[in-house]
Design goal:
Blueprint lengths: L2 E5 L6 H15 L2 E8 L11 H18 L8 E7 L2 H11 L4 E4 L10 E3 L1 H9 L4 E3 L11 E6 L11 H10 L2 E8 L12 H4 L4 E6 L3 H12 L3 E5 L15 E2 L9 E4 L4
Parallel strand pairs: 1-2, 1-4, 2-3, 4-6, 7-8, 7-10, 8-9, 10-12
Antiparallel strand pairs: 5-11, 6-12
Pfam families: Usp
Protein name: Nucleotide-binding universal stress UspA family protein
InterPro entries: Universal_stress_UspA, UspA
Length: about 260
């Protein structure tokens, strides 16, 4: 894991989140790209160059945040980017060969009932880059026990397991695999291949209506300090992701959640 991207909003948690990102990046010896995306719609004939003003203010804001954290020995690059949120972030990830995006739950929303705000939810739902959702105010600590929950172990994409492999190897963490048999179960879904089998220490099979319910049932017995799920159109957050905003009543986690790209 060499390059990590952190989209920054205006939340009161921004400094705490950035410090976690620095600490996480330091553990891997990775570069950290701190970015803020803005979009401006101006009327024809406008005399003031709004783009330049917002770009300057955004850059000053990001530089101010970075000054408030201990950057340690991490190479931190600050960028302001103009354009559509997802398209712009995906282009940035491709240009910088980003391995992981660190997301804070609520970049702008201040509503207590919200787990992932509109911006964070959109990033998790629509981007095809692995992401780590870090709870508000969460201080970095080495994960020792990861619970990976999936409803199908079929893997067709190359390198899709790289993020969890990197985390496991770097921190010498144990990975427990939770296979959830849902009503959409197909023959072969629980056939764990050699690549995945080499990562996990223990495997548990359960029957639940959804992967999410399987996690709720087995969370306390496993006591993980990191949760790993898979981004799929009909996956872990399928119903929850019908809207960009994710409410705490639908899903909430007090530990970091590693979201892998779809396995298939």
């Amino acid at each position: 894991m060499k390059n990590i991207l952190v989209p920054v909003g205006s939340s009161k948690n921004a400094i705490s989140h950035l410090q976690y990102a620095v600490d996480f990046a330091e553990a891997f010896g990775a570069k950290l790209f701190v970015v803020q995306v803005y979009n401006v719609f101006t009327k024809a004939g406008t005399m003031i160059n709004v783009d330049k003003i917002i770009e300057r203010e955004s850059l000053e804001f990001l530089q101010g945040l970075v000054k408030q954290v201990d950057t340690k020995n991490v190479d931190v690059f600050v960028r302001t980017l103009k354009g559509d949120l997802i398209d712009t972030l995906e282009l940035a990830c491709k240009a910088a060969d980003v391995d992981l995006v660190l997301v804070e739950p609520r970049t702008n929303s201040i509503k207590d009932e919200v787990y992932l705000g509109k911006t964070s939810g959109k990033i998790i739902k629509q981007m095809d880059v692995p992401a780590l959702i870090v709870p508000e105010g969460y201080k970095f600590s080495k994960p020792e026990h990861i619970l990976m929950a999936i409803k199908s172990a079929i893997i067709r994409k190359e390198n899709v397991l790289s993020p969890i492999k990197d985390v496991k190897d770097k921190f010498k963490a144990n990975v427990d695999l939770l296979l959830v048999k849902t009503p959409h179960y197909n023959d072969g879904d629980f056939d764990v291949n050699d690549e995945l089998n080499a990562i996990v220490s223990n495997t548990t099979e359960t029957v639940n209506a959804t992967t999410f319910q399987g996690v709720l049932e087995h969370f306390q017995s496993h006591k993980p300090d990191m949760l790993c799920v898979v981004r799929r159109k009909r996956g872990f957050f399928a119903k929850t992701w019908e809207k960009d905003t994710i409410l705490k009543k639908d899903f909430h986690s007090s530990i970091p959640v590693l979201v892998l790209s779809g396995l298939k």
